[in-house]
Amino acid sequence: MKDYQVIGKEHPNDQAYGMVTGKLQYCSDYQGIGMLHMKLKASSITHGIIRAIRTDQAEKVEGVRAIYTCFNTPKTKYDRGRVEFWEKVPYQERLFDDHIRFRGERVAAVVADTADAAQRACDLIEVEYDELPAVISMEEAMHIDAIKLHDEGNVYPATPFDYGDYSGITAYHTHKSQSHIGRMTHLCMETQSCRAIYDSSSQKLTIWSGCQSVFGVRSSVAQFLEMHYSKVRVIKPPMGGSFGVKQETLLEPLVAYAARSLKADVKLVYTREEQIVNTMMKHSLDASIESKVDEEGKILGVTVHCDLDAGAYLTVSRGYLATIQEKMGKVYKIPNVHFEGSTICTNTPINGSFRSWGSSEIGLIFENHWNMVARELGIDPIDFRLNNILSPEDIEIGHMVSVGNVRFEDCLRKGRDRFDWDGKKETCILRNSQQHRYRYGVGMALSSHTSSFYPYRVDIASAYIRLQEDGSLVVHVAIHDHGCGTILAMKKIVSEVMEISIDKVELNEADTQVNLYDYGCYASRSVHSLGATVKECSERLLDQATGVAAAVFGCNPSFVRYSNGEFYKEMDPTNRIPLSRVVQYSIQVLGKDLFYANTKNVDRNPGVAAVHFSEVEVDTYTGMTKILSCLSVHDIGKAINPDLCRGQVGSGIQQGIGMALREEIPIHPTTGETLVTNLKNYENINSWDMPDYDVLFIEEPEASGPFSAKSIGEVVLPAVAPAIVAAVNNALDTNLTHLPLTSAVILEALEEYHHETEL
Amino acid sequence: MKLNFNLNGKPFTIEADGSKRLLDFIREDLHLTGTKEGCGIGECGACTVILNDKAILSCLAVTGQLQGSDLWTIEGLNIDGELDQIQQAFIDNGAIQCGFCTSGMIMSVKALLMSNPHPTEQEIRRSLAGNICRCTGYREIKIAVQDVIQRRDAK
After folding, report:
1. Which of A116, A440, B107, B121 gives the lowest tally of CB atoms within 10 Å of its CB?
2. Could you tell me how far CA A603 lies from the centroid of its own chain?
3. Over the stretch A475-486, which tens digit does the pLDDT of each residue have?
4. pLDDT tens digits for A204-228?
């Protein structure tokens, strides 16, 4: 691939200086004169109706400004997953509902001069409930006599999907398996926070929220408060991680409502417990899969049934289930596919958006299954994949569009060598034969993800860039950086095109008042789609500047050349004029400002391929699994920020190991109580547990991405957990697919195995 | 209560509520918001500061403990504008993504290197085990710490 000046070169993350010095202000850091603080009270019951709320004692706490409950706030419904008013969404949530549907749901909010006063007042609020029976499991919620959480019922069946005719095929080998995924928390280090100021002189509302869609938040809040969109400004400040938890509108309607009611500056910062219970968790799901495969291991067809637990409100879950189905066609060529399932509401905390929508879920369902099928057929799992993967530019069946220049084969073959797959396989067998306590195994899994919305929705990407008087540049594009370097990527793209240093390019994050429209940071589209429009915008701006330079030189633009921030005529390279001179001439002589505004409709959605390899040691005495080595191979197109991309891969591995072996938020099966609400009990992978890992990028051309860049943010996760599951199963000769594979799960499986062998 | 202590290398006096959580005192009364809250129960390390040469979790300490002590927060590491070697190494080695764990992570490293100038890889891993990072996979952070040691030894 071509070598560039800044693209693909290592460079510190944008705002890194502010991060290491503690000077960078996140939303939760904002302080202001007269700022009020909000605290929330959570329900102590799992299901019921609020009969009364007594706030008289709470009102007496010094500094309390307002107390909000279901009895004094609008009954208007809104939807946290909605971005635009034309979308069909459930609209089930209110600021406060008298019908409580899960334990921990907010029942009141106090706004006070200090957070401490607000908390003390919350503690003094008394709520009386009429309790209702609760349905905790999906099975209970599906029962014909089950109490209904919503008027629409508890069960929302997906539209069955069919491609080919699964039931009509006969095969050499039919295999069935089941997968279960438990709930997880995103564990972004900054909890949810929101600040809103209502300025009564201008009657304008300004909201700061570390969100993934400023236009989505604005749309929801403005409609809820019946304000003109133009009077609501949403700004995205630096964000301490998201992993999907900041992609829905959670705090903003409430904080904005309080700010407008009180004509004040109001801030709400979630505690970690609220972050776990009152945002959303990764969906728990139960899936069964059956496949038909021929003698050579060619997949003939597959049928999947998947039930997804939405929690107490439907929110985005129906769409999430549909995404699982859509992702079925992104990796393998399967001529006959059937998918069905349901989204089910239960009296439990809400499940919702999580990094790599659908890819993680279908990744686990498929990869666990294919690893078992390959083992049963005696085919190496890599060879099994090589026989079934999509080739570049194949058509995926979910949307019937090209998968772009996706490189599954390269990832598999290069990864196999780099990891020494065949050598490690032999070594594991040898080590297992030499002793009994430790079992060694290797596993691998394959996955993919998107780079844009296309064609699921119109991927409209807009930007404008203005050349400043001194030749520096200000870029306006609605970027929502999660900390992974998308601001830096945009700056690098402009810097590369304009041939000026990165520090001359300035870019503020998403702001509804200064940016052109953008749907938001979803589907890992930022670098691919917004980057493409920023690149095109820079190129057109340079064309315009070239025209002005031609006027300065008094020649036709075709004679003008550009290099390192200076224009010259090809015939006279010594006479050079800088960008600043071009701007001056444009303004002073031509009377024209130098800027370009660009809206692009992205018409490709290249897939990104990922393969993860894992080597594990399972201690059969303790049930503990240790990762001895692992490798992630990623075809992401051009890595614009290779150093930050490697960090992203590390983050996916950290989260994926957690998903496979440790991370779970259990819900009490009868009370519906969330049993893990803090980081003491939420087992995750720290620096001591984290294995050394290897990263390999496959960088091949992709016409649609800027400098061939595709995406990385989400694809780093889905292959990791199934590869570890496969390695554990390889080590123990088991078929475990009930995640996470904690020590207890493994010991139980070993005991069962011994019991069976004794019989 | 009237508190006298050294704040980031300089004597400091303030009237304060000694029972207030140290993290809140640092953020709300001293307005030093570089120290972050990630969990509130001493499990994530985002609120790490250095008190009397030891890394402590400010969410588990009270303000009264400051009396006569020596407190360093992240804001104290680059007094006079020059970055501490650890801060520079984090920037240079891609050890930062969202940055929310960074100040606590850097303070933990600072305390480690004060007590043990040449930690082994295992010691680095162990001493950072109380600082959660969800964005990097820890590798670049460990490399940054090793880089500090190498650069210092090269001098």
Report:
1. B121
2. 22
3. 999 999 999 999
4. 999 999 999 999 999 999 999 999 9
In the block, residue with structure tokens 């998947």: A306
Query: Is the model's pLDDT at A507 over the cut of 80?
Result: yes
Structure-token pair, residue A335? 């001529």
Cβ distance of A649 and B138 shorter than 8 Å: no
B contact residues 21-60, partner A, Cβ 8 Å cutoff: 27-28, 31-41, 43-44, 46
3-state helix, strand, coil in chain A (%, to 5): 30, 25, 40
What's the CA gap between A267 and A256, in Å, rounded? 9
Q: What are the chain B neighbours of A188 within 8 Å (beta carbons)?
A: 98, 100, 134
Note the pLDDT of residue A134: 98
Contact A635, A698 (CB under 8 A): yes
Can you say how many angstroms the Cα of residue A410 is from the centroid of all Cα atoms in its chain? 26
Helices and strands, number each (H, E), in chain A: 18, 29
Which residue, chain included where needed, has tokens 């820079």?
A538
| C-alpha distances out from residue A246 to A95, A211, A232, A251, A314, Å | 18, 5, 19, 10, 17
Q: Are B106 and B115 in contact (CB under 8 A)?
A: no
- pTM of structure: 0.97
pLDDT higher than threshold 70 for residue A402? yes
Radius of gyration of chain A (CA): 27
Nearest CA in chain B to A27: B33
Q: Is the pLDDT of residue A178 over 80?
A: yes
Q: Which residues numbered 449-478 in A keep a CB inside 8 Å of some CB on B?
A: none
Of A134, B13, B42, nearest to B22 by C-alpha is B42
- Contact at 8 Å (CB) between A64 and A58? yes
d(CA B154, CA B141): 20
Distance between CA atoms of A226 and A222, rounded to whole angstroms?
Answer: 6
Average pLDDT over chain A, rounded to whole?
97
The secondary structure element, H or E, covering residue A364 is helix A359-377
Collect all residues with Cβ–Cβ distance below 8 Å to A493 and sequence separation of at least 6.
A7, A531, A534, A535, A538, A640, A706, A707
Interface size, chain A vs chain B, as Cβ–Cβ contacts under 8 Å? 187
DSSP A743: H
- Collapsed DSSP state (helix, strand, coil) of residue A232: strand
Of A634, A633, A607, the closest CA to residue A704 belongs to A607
Please state the rounded mean pLDDT for residues A541-551.
98
Residue A757 pLDDT? 67
Chain B: closest CA distance from residue A116 (Å): 10
Give the number of other Cβ atoms within 10 Å of residue B41's Cβ.
16
DSSP 8-state code for residue A25: P
Percent of chain A with pLDDT over 70: 99
Cross-chain Cβ contact A654/B141 below 8 Å = no
Chain B residues touching residue A191 (CB < 8 angstroms): 37-38
Element (H, E) at A446: strand A438-449
